[in-house]
Fold each of these.
Amino acid sequence: MRRTRSHWLLPLSVLVALLLGLLPLPAGLQPLRPYWLALVVAYWVIEDSGNAGLGFAFLAGLLGDLAFGGLLGEQALRLTIMAFILQRFRNQLRFFPMAQQALAIGGLLLNDRVVTAAIHVALGAPQLPWMFWLAPVLGMLLWAPLFVLLDALRLVRRVR
């Protein structure tokens, strides 16, 4: 048996993250929507830094801006900041136990919310509801299952 890398998984995972972000939710649950695109970008920056870096995060953010119809460049900025921090601490994060990794991702998602709030303040846009701050907790809880799923798909075993 040998392991082969699945090159189709990176673009497919970004597409699925975009689709999950577009999935309609009831108005009361909308602020709790996890930032799927950030979770997927975080996985790829941590696990495949050769193919996923700051440029990848910026392009994924631009796709998110276009798909979600927000301010052009906002998600690109947010994801690039997150990818920069992840690249800086990538070597440590890779060897953290899954619970510590999830806490670190939760911190990064919380930082993303702070950046979003700062952008809203700078532009004079209305602030988002308080439930908006709970979404990083949900993203933190989803990190382990998402990581395991993407890792299993990324490293497929083939018998030859």
Amino acid sequence: MRHSRLTLWLLGGFTLLVYAYKILPVFVVVALAFNPPEFGSFPIVGFTTRWFGGLLDNPAVVTAVKTSLRLAVATAAIATVLGVAAAYALVRYPFRGRAAVQLLLTMPILVPHLIVGVGLLLAFRILGLSRSFTLMLLGHVALTMPFVILTTQHRLQAIPLYLEEASRTLGANGWQTFREVTLPLAAPAIVTGFVFAFMSSFDEVTATLFWRPANFDTVPIYVLSELQNSVSQELNALAAALVGFSVGVPVLTMLLLHLWTSRRRRPARAPEATPAWQPATEGDAR
């Protein structure tokens, strides 16, 4: 008993050390973003938010944010549509070679993004295509679509097949069954996959370095290029804003999905019935 308790304490302490090693540097950057001196350093001598206001006056930062948002939204939308279709086909339609297709679609998660970036760039050069926004979009879709496939596929496997069969028995065609039965039940997983794809595209930097055209920066690439010169307070503020955005979007999505699913599960309140013994009113008598 003592040996098992000691093992649990050691395992818990080691886990805390790992989390501290990974999270403490993030808190350091966030804390420095609110430090008044022009060059961020410890100790913290005060509190200010003027470095965040300077981000809005920096045209390079504004352009990089717009580019990242446009790329991430387009990537998430395309990856969600293709990923949901692929997941539905893998779950509902057994065919020869399904395991190989599944492995091929989810392989970008296993392969390092450096290899994917170089491989797709070489493939486009063989086809005579140069680096462009379209190349970036296609590459990001290939990298993020496995997240949509895996989350949606797991949810579709939990939906009883007899619900779709009952819908078709009652006269609905395949599209009506998917729209009225399958899609509402799988909506939380689809939204989760969309958020995964959005955040993965927004934070992607390794493969994007091979695909971006000249003078075309996303937020992570802008931060990486600025780090080659110096670490300014505006850069710390931008990093803190990215931390808040990367944490806030998934948390807000989780809360909204929890609220939405709890409302759907809440049974509808039946209207109160009039007791049989209640006497008729004067209007009813007339």
Amino acid sequence: MYFLYWPIFLKLMMRMFTPRYFRPKFVFFVGFIIIPAILCFRLIVVFFQILDFFLFPGFWRIEIKQPLFILSNPRSGSTFLHRMLEKDKQYTYLSLWQSLLNSITLYKLVGFISALDKKIGAPISQIVDAVDRHFFKGWDGLHKAGLRFSEEDEFLFVSSFLAPGLILFFPYLHEVDDVFSLDNLPVKARKCLIKNFRLSVQRHVYATGGNTFLAKNAVAGGRLGIYQEAFPDMRVIHIQSDILRSVASSLSVFSKPWSFHSPACYQRKYESMSVIEMVRTNHQGIINNRQNFTPENSIDIEYDDLVINPEKTVVSIYQHFGMPLNAEYKARLVLDCIAAKSYQSVHEYTIEDYGYTNEEIIQHLADKSIQNLLCVA
């Protein structure tokens, strides 16, 4: 990725100091802790990525064949499906720490430290567990997260300030809407993103043994064209779901950090528009790019079908793509589906909780769609 894409980064920084958003706690936490930490972290990772070319020069020549991507609206079952598929050993996928430390050299270093840690009683593992409990407790019951859990490829882009996931830190992201639609960036910028996204996946596949790359993302619709150019033979599972339900659930998840670093924005209608716009651009991006996939490389599944009968849904995916379904994984799938059916969510979300009505959201989506059509015309 870019170290930084300055046009977007500067827009993010400038709005932090406007009268609407300038609050000491917000500026201190995001401007003087989060952003410098991301930049320092980015410097370290880039250094090790450069080392990869010298220590593992063959990684960039490996061919990534038919990577499998799960796409959906946010909060629409993509994590649920991914965590069922990831147990099939034919796949390799990103855990959170791997998406943050996207370097073969760092993978090897982490593996060495992990092995050493086990021999001395696992004190580092205990620290990692404590970090997970502290930083991810806000998502308990919503989205099981942690450094060692599988996660979206979003964090490959966050460190360059080129991802909708930045909404966790910037409640005004809808004012910098370039970040929602990277496919619309200038040609030179897109080519750089395509090249570096391909290298990111090659690093991971090389380091983990060369299996089929499995990924999921619920906010990547605006850069799906970049994905397709990086991997023309990519396969896609699209989970179709109720966009209003997705908006309500997304507001509950992505606005959580705002209550800490910018409480003045928390549950306000204007800032909540960032989440709504993120869901809209993702949904519209998937629709706009559907025609670019051959029928044999894409499949649509319904969210309700996935929840009601996950085993049947997974089997239909394997059949559609002609992928082998071995006995070991099939047995594991049966057990996972039994456990999934016993799970009952205790969370219910409504648009009204955030000051909207369904009619307002529908009208916004309709107005934006008309604007997009006029721009294309």
Amino acid sequence: MSQAKGQQEEFVETIEPEQPRAMSPNNGTGRENKPKGDQALQLIEEAGHSNILTPENNAKVLRKIDLRLLPILLGIYFLQQLDKSTISYASVFGIVEKANLHGQQYSWLGGSIYLAQLVFQPLVAYLLVKVPLAKFLAASCLLWGIALTCMTAATNFGELLACRLFLGIFEAGIAPAFIAVT
């Protein structure tokens, strides 16, 4: 096919439901044979919308995703980055004295989150393939929030270290999951 210079070929895709193997109204089980198509396509057809995908429709869907999903992802990522820096703010407000930290304990609190992320990355990579992304991301964010909330009740090095390790474990999967989402 030859195209005029400057013109771009337009692709219009259609989604066709999968055709049933047998169209018999009753297969002996008392149930009708229904076509085994995509459930999302059936829902679209029941709502009376078109199943033709055009570049305009694709752009509209992408814009909706960008306006609704990305702000949530950016907000969560911002909170995680803020959490990583709050340990330095806590030292200014006296966490070292209140939790009786001495020696390298404060340094371990700062680095433990990264150590936990490094150790749990292989498990996270495995889970991202085996578990549905939405469930994995929801569980990771929820457990990360719980671990962060528990950190407010920690009063000594052991409790603080445990909370920071759990924060690192649950944070390990969030950035890779965000990449998979986008």
